[in-house]
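Appendix B. Raw example, untouched.
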Amino acid sequence: MTQSRSSFDIVLTILQSGLSSLKDLAVLSGRDSFTFYRDADLRNLDLSNQDLSGLDFRGTDMRGSALKNSTIDRGALNNTKIDIEYSFLKDEYDTTMEDFSTIFNSSIYCFCKFREGFLDRAFKFISMPFSDFCGKYKFSEGALRKARRGDPVTTNTCLTISNGIIKEIRDRFGTEKRITDSCDITIGHFPYKNMWKRLERLEYIELSYMAERVNIVFEVEGPYLLGSGPINSTIEASKWRRYRVRAGAAGSIATRKAARA
């Protein structure tokens, strides 16, 4: 039986390689290149003109690093610390299907958007007609049309679509293949009528942890509504503010652990 390489061997191989490309070094490590640099310290590096596609830098500190003319996937720098001059490289999509199926919390009622065109590529990838998918997973074709257009759909709808596609990929290829290496889902809510507001992935994780704490401490029943529509009463709004403040206090360690999952 072949033993897995130790962390020491991996570091030694990287140091002796003489390579400067982050992408090549990630491949050399033998680990998952997509997640290899998450939560890493990449400060003060010259990454100009590098091909960084297929890499995700969630939680990474890249302050002081040069990113001029680098090729970066959409959403790969969300929740990343970078200098303000490169802030334009971030966009509102910061979650993958695999990530969302991991962080989903039924206690938090909010909405998701798929990047327009992503689901069309996904269904082409699994070679499955939309109607067949809806029939197999007992899913509304109208809800799928909304998701394909990039309109907001409930987190439950997003979870059903994501898990269905992931299962089809696993059944067809027998492995965890990715349709794309970019982040193509964003989470948000409607604090006011017809007003969409984005929640960052880490903020959603904070809210999930907060909901668990509130359930334990106060035994509050039912989901916490993050805008099933407009906030239509001062009581609901004041509850949200109170719980949100508690989330900030309660998040910390568990939030960081979930963020690395």
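End of appendix B.
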